[in-house]
Fold this protein.
Amino acid sequence: MKKEYRNSTRTKKMIRTAFVDLIDEKKLIANITVAELAERADIAKSTFYNHYEDVYAVADEMMRELLSELDSIIDAMEADKTADYRVYIKSIFAFLKENEEIYSKVADSPDAVFFIDKIKHILIKRVLEKIKSPLLSNNKTVRHLQISFVANACVDTMVDYFKGNLNMSFDELEDNVISILEKMI
């Protein structure tokens, strides 16, 4: 694995912070230029290009990191056959809470739709065969529908929260989602 130096890590963090702020303001990645991103991050354009090919590469890296973290949580859940699924739901919520400011800024971007759909797809695909519950159908088609329904509802509820459409704290949201899932699964 390639070792990253502190200055490089700090520079990438500045670029990503500037990117999140600009996507919050401009809503579309296509509306962000490398020049304004570099200016907002207080770096030279050449420094930006030392780390990223273009502004889309910043978004892609951020998306890959979120998906990787989500995969890691699901991998841990799959490896631990005895664990209560609520532990992993709480892990996902902890990760989301840690990055709440970022997700709140990008949630209103139309560019986030692809990213949100990818998260839903991963959840459906990875969870479909893993959850065992007497409430889930043995019929594959119906089971897929049930899992899709739950995954879409959970992700869309999180998006609503990040957009500011839910009048509750993050902790209240977590408690309510877990309570609803307990009744459904």
